[in-house]
């Protein structure tokens, strides 16, 4: 939880810009859905941009960070979860509350209205909270797919992983293929954390916590079967205060060439608040 209260007044103080690279330690699969299935192609293709290059949707990275922070904060329990969708077989449950000090809702935003809880009475909330965290689509760094890698790939930029599910009674095989971005690929990430009040400075350590959790978890599909292990490097963080936008004042570089532990160390520094002035 944070020190935000119902009386906290929102104004614009500035933005923290975080950029760096996401490295694939194993193959990465973020699916495009069946709509792009091609004859002779993989059963489960990866999402690609208009130029046919795989990328990581900002919604996928942001959603994974949210899920991990919900779990680590003890919010992934029925009494703290609400339904976004109750369609049978496609249920979507996320955390949401009307507490003013709820870090998850502060980082990722919340909408007012009536929402059905997974357990307990429906949530009737008149509280609207702007999301502080923006996560952009992460494009592929083209040179990270080397000539040597291309010689061994099934496609120009991706590989196809074959899997087989075996029936325990009949031993009948059910083969499937999974398109993946290969291990060694890198993506450029960019996140923006809005600071709208003094209390928002407490949100950066939570974001760093989410990134660190992700490095020991997985991103995308097939994580329990070996896909989706990633890590971050070359992290750069700059502070752009209100005057940067209103009068062209210089930005302040707070971090360069760091890893996630380095970002987390800075985020927890007692003197960081003074730098965001």
Fraction of residues in H or I helices: 10-25%
Average pLDDT score: 92
SS elements, strand count: 13
Q: Low-confidence parts, pLDDT < 50 over ≥5 residues?
A: none
User: How would the global form be characterised?
Assistant: globular
Radius of gyration: 21 Å
The proportion of residues in beta strands is: 25-35%
Order of helices and strands: EEHEEHEEEEHEEEHEHEHH
Largest sheet: 5 strands, antiparallel
In short:
The chain is α+β, with helices and mostly antiparallel strands and 277 residues long. The chain has 7 helices and 13 strands.
Describe, in plain words, how this protein is organized in 3D.
This protein has one domain. It contains seven helices and 13 strands. It has helices at residues 58-72, 103-108, 147-151, 203-215, 242-246, 260-267, 272-275, and strands spanning 14-24, 55-56, 81-85, 92-95, 113-115, 123-125, 133-135, 138-139, 159-166, 173-180, 186-195, 230-241, 252-258. The strands form five sheets. Strands 7-11-1-12-13 form a five-stranded antiparallel beta sheet. It has a two-stranded antiparallel sheet with strand order 2-8. Strand 5 (113-115) and strand 6 (123-125) form a beta hairpin. Helix 1 (58-72) packs across helix 4 and helix 4 packs antiparallel against helix 6. The two termini are 23 Å apart.
Q: How do the strands and helices of this protein lay out in sequence?
A:
Layout: E1 14-24, E2 55-56, H1 58-72, E3 81-85, E4 92-95, H2 103-108, E5 113-115, E6 123-125, E7 133-135, E8 138-139, H3 147-151, E9 159-166, E10 173-180, E11 186-195, H4 203-215, E12 230-241, H5 242-246, E13 252-258, H6 260-267, H7 272-275
């Amino acid at each position: 939880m944070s020190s935000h209260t119902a009386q906290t007044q929102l104004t614009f103080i500035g933005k923290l810009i975080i950029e760096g690279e996401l490295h694939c330690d194993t193959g990465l699969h973020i699916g495009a859905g069946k709509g792009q299935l091609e004859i002779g192609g993989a059963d489960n293709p990866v999402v690609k941009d208009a130029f046919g290059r795989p990328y990581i949707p900002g919604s996928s990275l942001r959603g994974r960070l949210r899920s991990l922070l919900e779990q680590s904060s003890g919010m992934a329990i029925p009494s703290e979860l609400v339904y976004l969708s109750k369609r049978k077989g496609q249920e979507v449950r996320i955390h949401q509350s009307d507490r003013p000090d709820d870090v998850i809702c502060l980082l990722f935003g919340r909408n007012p209205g009536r929402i059905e809880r997974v357990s307990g009475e429906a949530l009737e909330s008149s509280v609207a909270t702007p999301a502080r965290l923006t996560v952009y689509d992460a494009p592929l760094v083209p040179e990270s797919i080397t000539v040597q890698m291309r010689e061994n790939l099934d496609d120009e930029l991706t590989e196809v992983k074959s899997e087989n599910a075996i029936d325990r009674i009949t031993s009948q095989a059910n083969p499937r293929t999974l398109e993946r971005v290969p291990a060694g690929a890198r993506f450029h990430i960019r996140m923006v954390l809005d600071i709208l009040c003094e209390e928002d400075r407490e949100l950066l350590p939570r974001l760093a916590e989410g990134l660190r959790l992700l490095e020991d978890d997985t991103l995308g599909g097939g994580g329990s079967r070996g896909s989706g292990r990633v890590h971050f490097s070359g992290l750069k963080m700059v502070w752009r205060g209100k005057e940067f936008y209103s009068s062209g004042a210089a930005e302040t570089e707070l971090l360069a060439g760091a890893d996630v532990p380095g970002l987390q160390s800075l985020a927890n520094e007692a003197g960081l608040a003074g730098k965001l002035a």
